Amino acid sequence: MASKSSVAAHASYTSKLSIEDRMALVVKRVGEVKGLVRRSPLYWESIELLAKDEGSRGIFYALPDDCKLDYLKRKFMVKKREKRKLMVTKRELEESDSDDESDDESDYESE
């Protein structure tokens, strides 16, 4: 596991890099994960997650190499669950809106 001082040194180093260099480092580190299939959905999702989320990126960098794939899989599954939940909520809202519209229409018909 990475020591606190090596993580702090890494954070200091990466904060001085350009955005392009920081993202190149993310791509390189994701590509180094043993067992991760390049160009797979998990590979691309991992790059996007670590590029956007500084906290997740810091955790990923600090984890021992043998834990990185499990961490990325876990994050990917959480994201899929959140996306599914969002789709269900959106569908429920649409159904609720259509129910409201039909109620409104029946109000007008009785007048």
Please give a structural write-up.
- The structure is a single chain.
- The protein has 111 residues and is mainly alpha-helical.
- Helices cover 82% and strands 0% of the residues.
- The protein is built from five helices and no strands.
- It has helices spanning 4-15, 19-31, 41-52, 54-62, 65-109.
- It starts with a helix and ends with a helix.
- The model has no long low-confidence stretch (mean pLDDT 84).
Which helices and strands appear, and what pairs or packs with what?
Elements: H1 4-15, H2 19-31, H3 41-52, H4 54-62, H5 65-109
Helix pairs in contact: 2-3, 3-4
Q: So what's the oligomer here? A: single chain
Give the percentage of residues in beta strands: under 5%
Terminal residue distance: 73 Å
Number of domains: 1
- The tally of beta strands, per DSSP, is 0
The level of helicity is over 70%
What is the string of SSEs from the N terminus onward?
HHHHH
Mean pLDDT: 84
Characteristic terms for this protein:
single chain, 111 residues
Summarize the structure.
82% of the residues lie in helices and 0% in strands. With 111 residues, the chain is mostly helical. The longest helix has 45 residues, at 65-109.
